[in-house]
Structure formats: C-alpha cells, structure tokens
Amino acid sequence: MAYKVVNRFVETQHNSELYEAGDTYPKEGYKADPERVAFLQTSNNKYSRVFLGEEVDQQDDESPENKGSEEEIDLAQLSAAELKKVTNDDLRAYLDKNKINYDSDDIKEDLIKRVMNNK
Fold first, then answer.
1. Nearest 5 degrees, angle CA 12-CA 16-CA 22?
2. What sign for the dihedral angle of Cα 17, 81, 1, 59?
3. Is residue 8 within 8 Å of 21, Cβ to Cβ?
4. Beta bridge partners of 9
5. Structural contact between residues 119 and 76, judged by C-beta atoms closer than 8 angstroms
6. Are 3 and 55 in contact (CB under 8 A)?
7. Within 10 A of 81 (CB to CB), how many other CB atoms are there?
8. CATH 1.10.720 is the classification of domain 72-117
C-alpha cells in the first residue's frame, strides 16, 4: 500500500528519510506499518498536522498522464476541506499567480480563506 504525503516530515522509522509533500510513502525499500500510517494520517501529534493522505495506486500515480496534474488543478474549484490537503507552498503559489495579497506569516487557514474569497 502506498500513500500520498501531504506535509513534509522526517520518518524516524525509515532511517530519518525525508518525505516531501507530493511524495509517495513509503519510499522504495521500506514498508508501511499500518499503525504508523494511521498515526501519520491524523493530527494527533506534537505538530498537530496530518502527514499522509489517503491510499494511492502506485502504478497510476507514476503514470506519465498523472505527472504534473497537481499544477493543473484550479484551487478556486476546491472546497475548504480539500484545500486543507494542499501544502502552504502551493496555496501561496496560487495566491502569487493570481496576484492575491497575503501576509508572510499567514497560517494555512488564512491562506485558505484568501483562496475561498477569490472565487
């Protein structure tokens, strides 16, 4: 089973392997422990963040037609719940692209409000 990484983290159970948002978890050579996956899919941790999204089909995820599909998504079409799965960097990139002002210290909820208000 493979999962989409939604927030950057270092996996202490995988020899401190760095996982970036958009990566597939686990990386080659590692196995996904169901208890660890469940923990990483909740915000019940000291960072109050979800690190893994839903299970993905690795074959489909690696197919050429799916490469770059994230850039093609118009964030304005997503719901607030869906926007919570988008990285802060991607939210800021969308705001920059659409010339929407935001503060550098805005948290995810602030960025989502700005995207939602631009619809």
1. 95
2. negative
3. yes
4. 19
5. yes
6. yes
7. 8
8. yes
* Helix spans in the chain (H): 34-40, 58-61, 69-72, 80-83, 88-97, 108-117
φ and ψ at residue 118, rounded to 5 degrees: -90, 0
- At 78-112, the pLDDT tens digits run 888 889 888 888 898 889 988 999 998 899 999 99
The pLDDT value recorded for residue 78 is: 87
Which tens digits make up the pLDDT trace of 28-74?
999 999 999 999 999 988 889 999 998 887 654 443 344 444 455 78
Over its C-alpha atoms, the chain yields an Rg (Å, rounded) of: 15
d(CA 47, CA 42): 10
Domain ranges of the chain: 2-66, 72-117
Cis peptide before 64 (omega within 30 of 0): no
Looking at residue 81, its amino acid is: A
Question: 70-74 — which CB contacts under 8 Å span 24+ positions?
Answer: 70/22
Fill in the amino acid letter for 46: K
